[in-house]
Amino acid sequence: MKKYLQLLAARLPAGRYRHSLGVADTAAGLAVKNGVDPEQARLAGLLHDYARDLPPEKLLDLAGAAGLITCDLERRLPVLLHGPVGALLLERELGITDKAILQAVARHTVGAPGMTTLDKIIYLADVIEPGRQFAGVQAIRKAAATDLEAALLKALEASIVYVLDKEQPLHPATVEARNYILLARGGY
Fold first, then answer.
1. How far is it, in rounded angstroms, from Cα 50 to Cα 87?
2. What letter does residue 78 receive in the DSSP assignment?
3. CA torsion, ordered 173, 175, 176, 179, to nearest 10 deg
4. Rounded CA separation 51/93 (Å)
5. How far apart (Å, rounded) are the C-alpha atoms in residues 179 and 184?
6. Residue 95 is part of a domain; what is its CATH number?
7. For residue 2, what are the contacts with CB-CB under 8 A and spacing of at least 6?
8. Is the N end or the C end of the chain the one with fewer CB atoms within 10 Å?
9. Does some domain include residue 86?
10. Through-space distance between the first and last CA atoms of the chain, rounded to whole angstroms
11. What local confidence, expressed as pLDDT, does residue 64 receive?
12. Are 156 and 174 in contact (CB under 8 A)?
């Protein structure tokens, strides 16, 4: 873990590094509550934004070459690709081969239907780590203490509202992730 801390401290801006530390700690705590290996969650949380500060053209080049682009929206907003590209680079550059970690990193940006518990933890930890402050974050943190899936649902909905308020297009995977949870919970 120490080598990754040093690597990230040199690679990320200070604010993003602090955010990554917060996500790592939050993910480890959620992992303990939800029966997931806390060290696996801590590592995924720590490294989740590995590619976040790459230039848009670099994200597009890497994602395009690896076949990671799933929709036209990602070509228009390459920042949405930082999760999948991050997972790609973690394997290539750091030799991380734990598929659960790589998938959780890949899915943390926009979510996905059928997320694993680790996927949910990393998505949620990214939203509720202590440095995050937005209307509704306390309700999501409170839900996370007792019901991971309910908290994830609230986090996805907060993300959707945020994007709508900015008058930006929604990534289909975020909507699919929300609908998947709603349907799985049997509300419809």
1. 8
2. G
3. 160
4. 11
5. 8
6. 1.10.3210.10
7. none
8. C
9. yes
10. 43
11. 98
12. yes
pTM of structure: 0.96
Q: Print the domain residue range for 66.
A: 1-134
Q: Which of 89, 28, 26 is nearest to 53 (CA)?
A: 89
Q: What Rg, from alpha-carbon coordinates, does the chain have?
A: 16
Residue 173 within any structural domain of the chain: no
How many domains does the chain fold into? 1
Residue 110 located in a structural domain: yes
Handedness of CA 35, 36, 37, 39 (dihedral sign): negative
Q: Is residue 65 part of a domain?
A: yes
Distance of CA 180 to the CA centre of its chain: 17
What residues in the chain have per-residue pLDDT under 70? 187
Burial class (CB in 10 A: 0-12, 13-18, 19+), 117: middle
46-61 tens-digit pLDDT: 999 999 999 999 999 9
